[in-house]
Amino acid sequence: MTIERRRFRILGVVQGVGFRPFVYGLARSHGLGGFVLNDGAGVVVEAEGEPAALDAFGAALRRDAPSLARVEAITTETRPACGETEFTIEASTATGRSALIPADVATCDECLRELFDPTDRRYRYPFVNCTQCGPRFTIVRAVPYDRPNTTMAGFPLCPACRREYEDPADRRFHAEPVCCPVCGPCLSLPLEEAVELLRNGAVLAVKGLGGWHLACAADDDDAVSRLRARKHREDKPFALMTARPELLAETGEAERELLESRERPIVLLRRRVGAPVAPAVAPGSPWLGIMLPYTPLHHLLLADFGAALVMTSGNRSDEPIAFDDDDALERLGGIADAFLGHDRPIHRRCEDSVVRKVFPIRRSRGFAPGALGLPVPARRPILAAGAELKSTFCVARGPDAFLSPHLGDLDTDLAYAAFRTDIDLYLAMLDVDSETIAHDLHPEYLSTKWALEQDAELVGVQHHHAHAAACLAEHGERGPALALVFDGTGYGIDGTLWGGELLRCDLAGFERLAHLEPVPLPGGAGAIREPWRMAAVHLERAGLPVPWERWAAVRQALGVNAPLSSGMGRLFDAAAALLGLRDEVTFEGQAAIELELLAGDTDAAPYEWSFGDGTSLIARLHEDRAAGRPAAEIAAAFHETIAAASAAACAEAGDPGAVVLSGGTFQNLRLLDSTRRRLEALGFRVLAHRLVPPNDGGISYGQAVIAAASSS
C-alpha cells in the first residue's frame, strides 16, 4: 500500500471561521494522519495517507469549507512520509502577519437556543458564541487568530469551557472567544435594571460589538426627543432594533433576507401604517432604518423589554462612534442616563452597516474587513485615503482591496484622530507599509492633507473618476465605459467643483464628455446648508423673481465667496427649495431625500430638456409651480427629466456599450431605477453599485483601484 504525505497551504479568510476543526474532521473521515495549525498567513495542513484519500481530502478543502470561510488559494507540495496515523490540531506559529481576519458574525440559531434554554449552563448569558458566530474583527489584536491575540486573552477558560474547546465533537472546538458565566465577561449593570430604566423613558448607553449605542424606547416620543436634543441631531432618522420588524415596516422576502443575513445590517424599509414608532424617530419620512438583534445581549434586552428600541451610534452628531470604555463615559456622559457595558474590550471600532434595497449606504460591521477584488492587482501595497465626508480608507495588497469600516465625516478633531489611528491598525493587521498613497485632488480635504504629509509615492485621483472606477471594479471590469457620476461636490481638474458628470473612462483615465453648467455657490458651504440659495441663483440667472427676502444680502457673496459648481446634488437642492420643501438642512442630502419622497410613485412625463443647463430646468419648475401644478407631479417630472436627459446624453456619446451609475445622488431609487430603465431600453449595459456605497464611502476603493492599475 502506497502512503504519501502532502503539505497544504490555505490562504483567504480561514482563521476564526472554524476551519481547523473542519480540517480535523475531514482528515479523520478520510483516515489521514498529520496536523493542522494557524500561522501568520493562513492555515497549514500536513496530511498523510493513501493517495486517493489525499486527493479527496484536497478537493474537499475548498468545496466543503465552512460557510464563513473564503478560500482564496491552496498550494500543495509533497513531503516525506513519516508514518503518522493520528491527526491533531497543533499550536499556532507566528510566521508572517498576512492572515485575513473575518468580520463579526451575528449570533447563530444554536447559540440562541442555548441562550433561552433554562436547562443550559449558558442560559441568559450575554456573551454566548461558537465557531459560527460572535465577535471576530473587533476583538483581534494580532494574527494568527488565537485567544491570546484577542481581547479575550484576559479571560482564562474554566474547566467546562476547556473541555468544549478541546473536544473535536463539540461545535466550540477551537472557538477562540468561547466563555461562560464562570470564566467570561460580565455586564456592568444588571439587565433587569437596564430594562426598567428604558421603560421609564431613560436613554441607555449599550456596549455592542464595534462600539457603543444609545438606546431608548422607540415608541416614547419624549425619550426620543431628549435623545435628539442631547445628541445634537435635529432631523436625521434614528435606527431601530427589533425582533419583530413586520410590526414596524413592510417586509417582503427580499427584505427579510437582508435583515436575517449574517451581516445583520440596518435595512431601510417602508414604514407600516400605524407602526408603534414615535414621530421623532424619523421626522416626516415614510422610511425606517431597521436591524435585527445581532448579539446575545441585544436578544436579551429586546426579549425583556418587549418592544422596539432606538439603537443609534454612541456619539454626538458627526463624531466617530465611541468604542473605548473611558472615552464612552466621557463623551456619552451628558447624553445617556445610564451605561450597560461589560468588561470585554473592543479593539477596533466598527459602526453598523446600512443597506437600501440592493446597495450599501454604509459598508461596515459584518462586511469589513472582507476583501474586495482588484481588476488589476497591486504590485506593491497601496493605501487610499478616501474623501472628506462618509470617510473610509482602503488598503490594497496583491489582488485584494480591504475597505475600512465607516468613520464618519473628517471635519472634527475626533474623526481625524480616528482616521489616523484606524489606518495604523489596518496596516498592522495586513502586515504592510503604505508604499503608495492615493488621495483626492481637493486641497482642503483632511485626508488629502494627511496624504501629502506622508513619506510615500503619491497618486492623485480625481473624485468622480474614483466613483466610476469603484463601480467598474466591483463588477470585475476595467472599462472603457461611459459613467454618469452625480453627487454634490467633488474637486475637478479645472479647480471648480464638479458633480453632474458624464465621463468616458477606464481605470487608467477619463474624458469629461458633458456636465451640468457650473453655477456659483453663494457663500460657499453656506449654499449647501441653505438650499434656497441655489434656487435663488438659478431664478436670478433665468431672469425670474426671487421670493426670498434674504437674497439681497446673500447675493453680495457672489463677488466674494461663490465657487463654481456643476454638482447634481445642488440642482436637487434648488428644486427642493423651489417646491417649498426645505430652506435649510441639518444633514447631508436632506433636501434631495425629501424631494425623492415628494415624488414618490407619482406618474409624470419628463420636460423637454437637454442635459447641461440646470437653470432652464429650474425655470420650468418655477413655471409649473406658478401655474398651480401639484408639487408631487413637479418633483416626479424633475426626476424623470434628469433620467431621460442623462440617458439621451449617453446615446449621443455613443458606444462603449456599458454605463456606470455612481455618486451619492444615485442613492435616490427613483432616479436610479428610471435612469437604468431608459439606458437599457437604448441597449446599454448598466453597472450600478451592489458591494460598495455609491456615495463617498466608496471613494477610497476607487482610488485604490486606479492606483493599482496605474502601477501595473
Strand residue content: 15-25%
Secondary-structure-derived class: alpha/beta
Overall mean pLDDT score?
Answer: 95
Q: What is the count of β-strands?
A: 25
Number of alpha- plus pi-helical segments:
21
Strand order of the largest sheet: 12-6-7-11-8-10-9-13-14
Unreliable runs, pLDDT <50, ≥5 residues? none
Radius of gyration: 27 Å
What's the quaternary structure here? single chain
Indicate the overall shape: globular
Could you tell me how far the N terminus lies from the C terminus, measured between alpha carbons in angstroms?
50 Å
- Major beta sheet, specifics? 9 strands, mixed
Tell me roughly what share of residues is in helical segments: 25-40%
Structure, explained:
The protein is α/β, with parallel strands linked by helices. Helices cover 31% and strands 21% of the residues. The strands form five sheets. The chain has a nine-stranded mixed β-sheet with strand order 12-6-7-11-8-10-9-13-14, with helices on both faces. A five-stranded mixed β-sheet has the order 4-1-3-2-5. Helix 5 (191-199) packs across helix 8 and helix 14 packs across helix 16 (568-578). It is globular.
For the structure shown, list the relevant keywords.
alpha/beta, 9-stranded mixed beta sheet, 712 residues, 25 strands, globular, 5-stranded mixed beta sheet
